[in-house]
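--- STAGE predict ---
source: upstream dedup step, 1 unique chain passed
mode: sequence only
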Amino acid sequence: MRKIIISAIILVILLIIVIILVHKRDTDVYLSLAGYSPYGCIDMQVDIDNERVFSDTVSYTAFTPKKINLPMRLGFHRVSVESNSLKIKKDKIIFLFFNQFIMIEFYNKAKFVRDNPEFEIRTHFNPFYLE
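--- STAGE serialize ---
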């Protein structure tokens, strides 16, 4: 009797975990050019899980970045960002959890910091704010 109760509890917990992981949630994706950039705008193509979600130009702004809202599941996702004009490409596998957003920023080359321009892909917990 005790084994049946324990296995039923484990089964219910696994079922709840599967239901939570399968359900899609709205996830914010922010695209921006960070810091000073000699480029007023750059072309950016963003693929998430081999599906093109953004293909347009991102302009420099000192305040709020460009925002995309996508339905995404919890778990691991492959994010790929590229710029054809600058010939830069970056791939990263991220883990998306509850109440998180994805931030994709372009950094220009800077003396003593980075030799070449690059994209940075990361996740943070909501809410999004500027410091």
